[in-house]
Amino acid sequence: MSIGSGGLFLIAGPCVIESEAHARRMADAIQRITSDLGVPYVFKASYDKANRTAVSSFRGPGLQEGTAILRRIGEATGLPVLTDVHEPSHCAVAAEGADILQIPAFLCRQTNLLVAAAETGRAINVKKGQFVAPADMRYAVEKITSTGNQRVFLTERGTTFGYNNLVVDMRSLAIMRQMAPVVFDGTHSVQTPSAANGVSGGQPEFIPLLARAAVAAGVDGVFLEVHDDPANAKSDGANALDLKNLRAVLESLLAIQAAIS
After folding, report:
1. What are its E.C. numbers (predicted)?
2. pLDDT one digit per residue (tens) for the chain, 261 residues
3. CA distance 101 to 193
4. What is the DSSP secondary-structure string of 139-182?
5. Quick one: CA dihedral 128, 129, 131, 136, positive or negative?
6. Are 201 and 188 in contact (CB under 8 A)?
7. Residue 181, by phi and psi: left (phi above 0), alpha (psi -120 to 50) or beta?
């Protein structure tokens, strides 16, 4: 698939690898839906959630095991795979199991991490920090491209709005799209960070609304954390899209894209 080629694509999966069986089940289920609808699909899951609110929160299987799981899922399904990286030393290993390395929003200014990820040659998705002006994301893009790696895109996931809340400025999508292809994260944008007794809460009822607005604004792709049992998800369940609602959401997004094309 070619990111930024004009068609809407989807990045989706569980926040974290809960088990290999669950991650594979989610990849297969989402792939069936996207295949039916003709939507290019990237499977997403994290091997380690290093930025959980509480030290006791589940983080995932770790770098070595998680990378091996992601590699097996990619090989078995034929899907491109995306995962987060949090440390420069992780990048080369994570690149063995993932086609796209994602820079978490909190780390989007970390030069050593951006450069190390870019030097793997993998495509790089940089999430815009909740504290960063959209125009300033050009510096993150420059850090990636300074290595000679031109395969970079940006993801909007909301801006800090007071305590424990985020708001999406739709202007940021157009501003950042002047620098690189842009993805809208419809699930983290409805997160209420650290607002639920040591974990983050969320307002998933607003995922379809914000995603529709973003597609109408002309984004290249949509990022959705999707889970088959959000109430029992081990990470970010409060802002995840329930798998049973995915098809209807995608159908509405495709209709909007067709209307503006």
Report:
1. 2.5.1.55
2. 777 667 899 999 999 999 999 999 999 999 999 999 999 999 999 999 887 677 878 888 899 999 999 999 999 999 999 999 999 999 999 999 999 999 999 999 999 999 999 999 999 999 999 999 999 999 999 999 999 999 999 999 999 998 988 999 999 999 999 999 999 999 999 988 775 666 677 788 999 999 999 999 999 999 999 999 999 988 878 889 999 999 999 999 999 999 998
3. 23
4. HHHHHHHTTT---EEEEE--EE-STT-EE--THHHHHHHTTS-E
5. negative
6. no
7. beta
Query: Which regions of the chain does DSSP assign to beta strands (E)?
Result: 9-13, 41-44, 81-84, 100-103, 123-127, 152-156, 159-160, 166-167, 182-185, 191-192, 201-202, 221-227, 241-242
SS3 62: coil
Distance separating alpha carbons of residues 92 and 216, to the nearest angstrom? 37
Q: Which amino acid is at 84?
A: D
Cross-strand bridge partners of residue 127? 155
Amino acid sitting at position 9: F
172 token code pair: 């940021």
Between helix 246-260 and helix 207-217 the angle, nearest 10°, is 20
Domain boundaries of the chain, sorted by first residue:
9-252
